[in-house]
Amino acid sequence: MSQQGDRPATTDDWWGRLYDESARDTGPAGTPDDTIDDRFDSAADTLGGGDDLPSTRTYGHAVDAIAVDDDEDDAGDDEDEGVGPASRPPAWWESPGGRPVTRTPAPAPESAPAPAPEPSVPTPAPVAPAPLTPRPRAPWEPPPAAFDPTDPAADPTPPPAAPRDPRAADPRPPAPPPPPPPAPAPAARISHVGDSPPTYEPEPTALPAADAEELDQLVADTVLDGARYGTYTLRAASLRGDSARYRGEPRRDALLTARFGAGPGALVLVAVATGARATEGAHLSAADACRWIGGAVGRSHSRLAEDIRAGRRGDLKSGLHRLTDRTYGKLRARAAELGRDPEEYTASLRCLLLSADPDCRTRVFFGVGGGGLFRLRDGAWQDLEPLVPEPSAIRGAPVVGYGSVPTGAGAATEQTPDGDRLTMDLEITKAPGPLVEEPVPPPPEPFRFRASVARPGDTLLLTSVGLAEPLRGVPALGDELAARWADGEPPGLATYLADVALRAKGYADDRTAVGVWEA
Predict the structure, then answer these.
(1) Do 80 and 210 fall into the same domain?
(2) Residue 87 is part of which domain span?
(3) Strand segments (E) across 39-101
């Protein structure tokens, strides 16, 4: 294309890339007026242009004659004999109603041999676009605009919907399921029973006084524990009473849960102690009682666990009686160290022994002092507290060497020739005892023992005095706890604590309860 000028070509010059001087030209023009316009007219005629364009042009070495309906011959450059307007479909810019164009190859000049035709490249037939299937509108898409009759581009006739294959999946998203009906609201859990609420607030108000040098003697307001062994689930809680919370007094109840051994031979001990009322250091005596009975049981746990699995009730009763007596002996010795009366530094003690063997359902209770032992079976409470004989029934005959001087037969053999009275038969002299004007004080609390076999679904409840008294005096409290534990499933720790804290007017002492749920 040197005839168009010598414009240099650069990388960014599109004109230079289009008309590059280094590119091979199609050949010299046959006429001196070969310009861009002439070539454009020739190309338009070749592609079937209108009547107003020149009809004959000659390019290159091969000349084709194009005959049109007005007998005007146009020569064009086409080296592909198999490609022409007659052998291809009309292009997108061509009018379907244009003139028919036929193309016949022109003979090559005799002076120059005709070049070999290049292999033809078939033009692919146009593919008609597939009809669009209307897509259902998704829930989040806005609705289509309303039809405007004044809009000429609007088509009031909706396109026909394509038939849907019944085997194909539904393209529409599934409708959301209807919301479930609201669950009935659970019944509100009451915090007290009776016609009126208790006098004190249900939450702690004041803390006990503390000594900087005796911080180890402080006790927490609430203790909560639990475990699961064999066929039972254990729940234990001890909390300060309403009156002690109000006055800032320490909790007098003590709770100990301990496991000795491992495997089926393990033994679980739960001890509950309550210090004497209106005495200084009552919480300390209760803690000592739990600690000392725990040590005694722990040192003998192997023999105790074996006796429980074997059902030796006689051996258990006598052995546990000795361990309990030793505990109270230590309490009296501790009171002497503190310079206090034994009645001031003492506590009631109640214990449960539970085997970890799944095949053993024997539950052993023992202790001294007040409290409660209950069993919930078939929705009804049973009071399992062992019967305590009257004091007169356990005093027996006068003991030699104590009280008034015996008279009657045999009295001479119990005195020396000088008239001194013998103590037993050990020949040890003792001065006559003082005259007792007041009645003899009652003996200490008797030892309590009970061994029972649990059934599936039973709930055993061991309590201190603070919960045993309202359970026996307020039937509504027992009914409420029975309703809460009716399904036989052990409650969680927090739920169990709320159950034990169910209050009743007139009962504001510390509460400690140990529950055993049988599977």
Answers:
(1) no
(2) 31-109
(3) 64-67, 73-76
Q: What is the pLDDT of residues 142-192, one digit of tens each?
A: 666 555 555 555 555 656 666 666 566 666 777 788 888 877 666 667 778
122/125 Cα distance (integer angstroms): 9
Domain CATH code at residue 364: 3.60.40.10
Residue 217 lies in a domain: yes
CB neighbours of residue 189 within 10 Å: 11
Task: Report the alpha-carbon angle 196-201-205, nearest 5.
Answer: 170
Closest CA to 288 of 266, 311, 271: 271
Asked which of 56, 75, 109 is the last residue of a domain, the reply is 109
124, exposed or middle or buried, with CB in 10 Å at 0-12, 13-18, 19+? exposed
Domain contains 476:
yes
pTM for this entry = 0.57
Name the domain count of the chain.
2
How many residues would you count in the chain? 519
Paired with 244 in beta bridges are none
Are residues 209 and 97 part of one domain?
no
443 and 321 in a common domain:
yes
**508 phi/psi in degrees, rounded to 5:** -125, 20
CA 3 to chain CA centroid, Å, is 88
On average, the pLDDT of the chain sits at 75
Domain boundary among 93, 109, 125: 109
In a domain, 400, yes or no: no
User: Taking a C-beta distance cutoff of 8 angstroms, is the pair 56, 64 a contact?
Assistant: no
Nearest CA to 254 out of 277, 295, 220, 227 is that of 220
Closest alpha carbon to 506 in 238, 247, 194: 194
Single-letter code of the amino acid located at 377: R
Yes or no: say if 445 and 436 are a contact pair by the CB < 8 Å rule: no
Residues facing residue 415 across a β-bridge: 421
Range name among 108-117, 264-273, 410-419 with the lowest pLDDT average: 410-419
Return the SS3 of 305: helix
- Tokens for 20? 């590059």
What does residue 507 show for φ and ψ, rounded to 5 degrees? -130, 105
Strand duo 192-193 + 503-504: pairing: parallel
